[in-house]
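FIELD: query
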Amino acid sequence: MQQLHCYPYELDFQYPFTTHKGTKTAQPTLIVSLTGHGMTGYGEAPAISYYDVTVAHMLEVLENKKAAIERFAITDPKRFWHFLYHLIPGEIFAIAALDIAAWDLFGKMSRKPVHQMLGITWGSVPPSDYTIGMDDLENMERKLMLHPAPVYKIKTGGPDDIDMIRSLRKLTTVPFRLDANEGWTFDDAKHLLPELKALGVTLIEQPLKRDEADAMKELKAISEIPLYADESCRIPDDVAHCADGFHGINIKLTKCGGITPAMEMIQIAKKLGLKIMLGSMNESTVGTAGIAQLLPMADVADLDGPLLLKEDVATGITYSEGAILLSGAAGTGIKYTGSKFLKPTLTS
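FIELD: result
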């Protein structure tokens, strides 16, 4: 029988992280481990307030179902995911953490990296951007200069941010991606698109609210800049609904439920001609290494979570001018190191 342990953390950001939805100075996150056959797999799910998910809630859910989870023999992570989907319905974040841990454990048992287990050939992969959170202009300029990157993702709040984009553009010639986090109106976006194109913006993420499907369809028809769905696309069932209003989708393990449904989303999106962004929710290396296994299937990468943290709880991926390099070890390739600076709470 396997063992489940849970490790809650508050991971400090290097800088306060501000989006249209608010400001955080630390990222609450839950690391889980599954131990069996003398090996341990690790997964992660950060708590996200606008999805009404807390670490305390995830801990309660997993504690209540701990015995059933430990009894399930992981011979196939996909079967384990479906078991969890019915055992803790609706608990997508907790399912994601366990699914990543199961793939890590199964990979270690098979002595192969997860991407090989999934039949993915490692080859050319897109570089990750570096995210500049909303701030006063001086601080945003300072962060950009201190963190050279092949592409920057810039959080925006509204049409007035065009002045900020103009100022940042004076400092670098690399491409910009903008993430509005549902913060624009249709008229804002329509007005901004031509100048944003001229300013070297190559991608806009979730410009309008998730329930504005008709407006997004109209915006896509006039936009020369690719538009990517984030809040509008959480799970596999959402992908087809995004085809009319977006050029691509942002897949995040935490919001979709892990590696298993992420693979399904990629397959659906490719059939529909949608581009693939692999994104993060400020995960540590534990969660980031999980989704990084899928990089050869992506067009765009936004996997800079570990770069935004003061401290990490694992090693196993490195960044070189935006390129993400895996350790090559079995499973997700991470080594858990969190106990070196925190005292995690384990389920008994």
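FIELD: remark
The two ends are 15 Å apart (CA to CA).
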